[in-house]
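Posting for a labmate who doesn't have an account.
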Amino acid sequence: MSKSKVLVTTIISAVVGLFFLFCLGWTIFDHYGKKTSDMRSTEATPIKKDLANDFTVVALGDSLTRGTGDESGKGYVGLVLEDLENEYNHKPIIHNLGINGQVSEELVQQVKQKEVRRQIKAADVILLTIGGNDLFQKGQTLIDYDSQVISESQKKYMENLNDIFKNINQVNDKATIFLLGLYNPFIELDDDLDTNRIVRDWNNDTAEVVAHYKNAIFVPTFDLFQLSVNDYLYTDNFHPNKKGYRLIADRVAPLIKWEDEKR
């Protein structure tokens, strides 16, 4: 073969080789590059779910419902609403009727009020914190520790809790009621007063009452604070701080989303 033919053959082979390399590179880019780009686009613009325009949350109870101890003022109720806003297209309607220092006997009377009953009737979800003031009585229960007194308070609280649920369901038995259990802010006194057992017994009996109502769910919080309670308490050593309310909201919000998807 002459030198010129060898040169022509080499050039043609090189051109053909480059063409195939180009085609291979284009195929790889088209397959993987485009797929990655599409995934990034999907992650950047998540599709929000629909939520009824009049989806209503009524929050009842004590200072935890008011958000006492949270410097931002949101409390767990405000944080839950933020989570729902991020998840859905519509902002839920909220009626926060919590009262600082409220005990169960007072809540029994509150849910009988005409305006409160009107708001309960429109509710899709009812958030409820109650019982902490019945049990601890601003710490006096531990100062004047008497197991018989605690037992009587517990029995009276369970009666009031039944009355609260019955009154709510008379107006609206379709709304889902989330009752938050108690955490133990006095866990460091446990060696002397067995506070963990007291709170656990209180929560167990509360959960038993809740179990009698099909539209009610008991939401435990005891475990959230158990291992490092001081990290999640406000300076009054009783109410949650911002991080503590975040823990509670992270437990409640997914339950509301799950309940909504069941509707």
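Reply:
Got it, the structure tokens are right above this. The chain has twelve helices and five strands.
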